[in-house]
Write a structure and sequence with these properties.
The longest helix has 25 residues. Among the domains are: 195 residues, Rossmann fold (3-Layer(aba) Sandwich); 101 residues, Luciferase, domain 3 (Roll); 131 residues, ANL, C-terminal domain (GMP Synthetase, Chain A, domain 3). With 626 residues, it is an alpha/beta fold. It starts with a helix and ends in a 6-residue tail after the last helix. The protein has an 8-stranded mixed beta sheet with strand order 2-1-11-10-12-13-14-15. The radius of gyration is 26 Å and the shape is globular. The chain contains 20 helices and 30 strands. Helix content is 35%, strand content 23%. Strand 10, helix 11 and strand 11 form a beta-alpha-beta unit. It is an enzyme of class 6 (ligase). One of its GO terms (molecular function) is long-chain fatty acid transmembrane transporter activity. It catalyses: tetracosanoate + ATP + CoA = tetracosanoyl-CoA + AMP + diphosphate; a long-chain fatty acid + ATP + CoA = a long-chain fatty acyl-CoA + AMP + diphosphate; a very long-chain fatty acid + ATP + CoA = a very long-chain fatty acyl-CoA + AMP + diphosphate. Its main location: membrane.
Amino acid sequence: MMYALLTLALGLVVVALAMRFFLLSWFPYLHYDLINFLRIFRFHWLFSAYAKKKPFYTILDRFLEQVQRSPEKPFVLFEDERHTYADADRLSNRVAWSLLRHVGVRAGDTVALLLTNEPFYVWMFLGLAKVGCAAALLNSNLRSQSLLHCFSCSGARVLVASLLPALKNAVQEVLPTLREKNVIVFVLAEECDTEGMESLLDKVHTASEEPVSTSYRSHITIQSPALYIYTSGTTGLPKAALINHSKIWRYSVLLRLVGVTSDDVIYIFLPLYHASGFFIGLTGIIERGGTLLLKSKFSASQFWDDCRKYNVTVIQYIGEIIRYLCNQPKKPNDRDHKVRFAIGNGIREDTWSEFLQRHGNIWITECYGGTENNVGFINYTGKIGASGRVSFIHKLFTLHAVVKYDAENYEPLRDFRGFCVKVPSGETGLLLLRITKAFSFEGYAGNLQQTEKKKLRDVFKKGDLYFNTGDLVKIDKEGFIYFQDRIGDTFRWKGENVATTEVTDVMLRVNCINEANVYGVKVPGNDGRTGMAAIVLKKGHEFDSVDTYKIVTSYLPSYARPRFLRIQNSFAVTETYKQIKIKLVEEGFDPSVIRDLLYFLDNNKKNYSPLGEDIYNSIRHGIIRL
């Protein structure tokens, strides 16, 4: 009897091992898919419960729950400051009461924030949420007309700005227009003597710390606007992507899905006005109940020292960040840290491998998504080089499609029936995301035209609706997504999307320039593409390098400024008078190929200086950094 039982047990073990071997051989990522499915299923179960609560259970309610659960746990670390969850609750109460009693906001209002990374950014977001208001997160690089445009399209009637000279000056530049529109402007200061601007910190410091009644936010539903986050899109001025409370939850759950816990400390240096910094960092760590290390800006030389000092376990990145870290001089303590997770997007395959070899066993989770995207993808397997994975969940709900793209006409190819054509596995195509009630696209505030432009109708059958990502990708036979390029009049530099039409408008402010054709070019050793402009001078004018530099640096953020200029007699255009960029992009900024006069943006001389072979080689070899 015993012998029979042992034989049976041994047989079951052999069968189990054989099945495991079979599954791993034929379905090597099945266990990853199952774990991801269970995590998503659990979140949707929780989200269904949140949605049924009256009023709707928001990320603020999650924060207040964390306050009750762990009041003395560190929430925000910043320089030498240490703020617990209870501290954040009290400070955001002060902000809320000052907004109600001194600023005069009402439930349902929108308040625009022009701030840099600092703890007060967090208190402002929480305070606004407590009084039922939405926040418009303005890019702190915006100036002049771009700043006014972004402020206005959110519908805000209050602007809160940092006291930093650059930001205060940016507000003062547009202050006459804001005053004409009866906008109330506050600066983070104890006092302010500028007419038309008021101090806010003095009001916050004297405000009550008592909890704010939930009646102020009783109107909040799953579809209520919570944030406006700005994206340059493919053309024109930045657009305000409307983020409702449902979408905040979809973003904030990402850290849960990749295995981050309440014991983790996440390092955030990306600006909080970006979706990446705000959701993966702030609201993501609120959902987890962990700790946020907030940095005002990225420093490659201080990065690992910060990680060791604050016991960081999770880091966020964009592709360039990992490369910057790899470019730092090697040190004996490169593996002396507690970082176990890295999460972000845009890392190159070679950089990925180099980073792991140098800094040890860090699990890198590459994600694909966008501020306004309704569907995202996660490479939860750690497969080097992939931007995401199409799991059986995506396939089950048919949430995406990759279709053939007409690069000449900037639109998807359609067959004789008028429907789009899917590309085979492994081929590059345009990524479309299906729009449904559960995976909705909220669009852009005050910009119906751009909202409709991102929608594609009758894609595979009459009546269906898809979101046009504007991204070219390929998906291999195993279901891994690989980002290839962006389409349209957009290039990406320093982690920012740059709309060429906006840059062109600024270039045409220069007195000597008659026409401008802006595009992105590859620079050896750098991710993305940096800005270059081919220009045609006005008749009878010579190129004014100083005035051009002055206009470009005054009206454009640093990442959008053309690093190279090419002076031409005329532009090649299509039969419909569209500027042709393909050849210009291919030729780049190589003076041995280009016979036109070339210039580069010279910050030392504060002008555009001639670009010759010596400068070109210095840029190619990284001696001159862009």
